[in-house]
Amino acid sequence: MFTSYERLEKRSGKKGVDRPEYLKELVHEFTTSEHLASREQVLANLVNFAYDPINYPWLRKLKVIDIFLDQLTEGTATLRDFAAAGLCNLALDQENKAYILRQGGVELLLSVSHSVFSLP
Which domain holds residue 106? Predict the structure, then answer.
């Protein structure tokens, strides 16, 4: 379900969780963790946040698109799957889509899909 700023405030209260700060902490944890299971869990959380358009500006500012793009070529199979899902979620936004296209994201996604589906 998509969120509004009013709904965020109602759910977390005026002194509740600061969404941009929480996302920043997730990105920091992903980039500094040496444990694969932790990285997979954090990336899955970022993919879930990428589902809601209210998070797009924060995710752009934190360069989460670049994290997803990097994981398509550097990550494990699980990280690649999560990264592909995150890019698909973010591509609904025109600004995100343009950035993904400029960075060669479609080609990266195609190369991953060929290895996953063993296309001829």
Answer: 15-115
Residue 120 lies in a domain: no
Instruction: Find, among 34, 35, 99, the residue nearest to 68 by Cα.
Output: 99
Residue 116 neighbours by CB under 8 Å, 6+ apart: 81
CATH number of the domain within which 83 lies: 1.25.10.10
What are the structure tokens assigned to 21, written together?
A: 């700060």
Domain count along the chain = 1
> Both tokens of residue 95?
């600004």
Task: Give yes or no for a contact between 36 and 23, defined as CB atoms under 8 angstroms apart.
Answer: no
Using the 8-state DSSP alphabet, how is residue 62 labeled? Answer: T
Residue 3 belongs to a domain: no
Per-residue pLDDT of the chain in tens (120 residues, 90 and over written 9):
455 556 555 555 555 568 999 999 999 999 999 999 999 999 999 999 999 999 999 999 999 999 999 999 998 999 999 999 999 999 999 999 999 999 999 999 998 876 555 544
Q: What are phi and psi of 18, to 5 degrees?
A: -85, 105
